[in-house]
Give the backbone structure.
Amino acid sequence: MSELKGKIDFLMLISVRDANPNGDPLNGNRPRESFEGFGEMSDVCIKRKIRNRWQDMGQNIFVQSDDRKSDGFGSLKARADGYEPLQVEIKKGKKANRDLCAEIACQKWLDVRSFGQVFAFKGEEVSLGIRGPISIHQAVSISPVDIVSTQITKSVNGEDTKDGSRASDTMGMKHRIGFGLYVVKGSVNVQLAEKTGFSQEDAELLKEALKTLFENDASSARPEGSMEVCRLYWWQHQDKTPSVSTAKIHRSVIVRPVVERPKTYSDYKIIYENPGCVEPEVYDFV
């Protein structure tokens, strides 16, 4: 595989309609929001979706969700133990070569060489931390979001009752966002990519995953078509460290509502002001 050509920056616009993009388990699974009422999606949530897309592409993934396990391993430790080249080195204990362990893990799993990973399990004398080249910001909506909460009930018995009667309805709540336009920002660091072996081909896999982020992601909280990638900006620099900072590049995309209460993607005006760097690849999906 070829070395990464240069630093990469990217920015993506995501629309959410009548869906819960990222529930907060500490707040009754309500959609995450800031104190000012802006919707949020954690970087962990976005990375999970990228990993899922990579799995769909046939790539080896270390951090697999339970409902998408493709290798039969029930835990991260079991997956690490199941890869013999890695275990041969780890079993050397304090004499293990940590650099070699990192190289083996990065060669095997795409998400390890992309996002990094901590290998620290009970019963092992070796702990290993790998820094990945891809960094992703927490996504935030352009405008404040309205959260709609609906009370739901169970219409069937979960268990048999002694007298055969129907048990009392179980109450619950389901939450969704009416509409929101979220901005996802990220970058790929060349120096860290050189250490993990993240290649130009891996960068193309990342781009493809971002384009199709919500394929095979539907659920009761996120019905098919309720979440959509609207636009992707992709800056492929020629230098390892461009003269224009990532922060300035991300600020170069200006998104402003053209109505007081935006309800659709077309209710926003998007302006790109080149900050003095390479022109981005722009992909429109709406």
About this structure: Residues 56 and 216 are 9 Å apart (CA to CA). Residues 43-56 form the longest helix (14 residues). The longest strand covers residues 171-188.
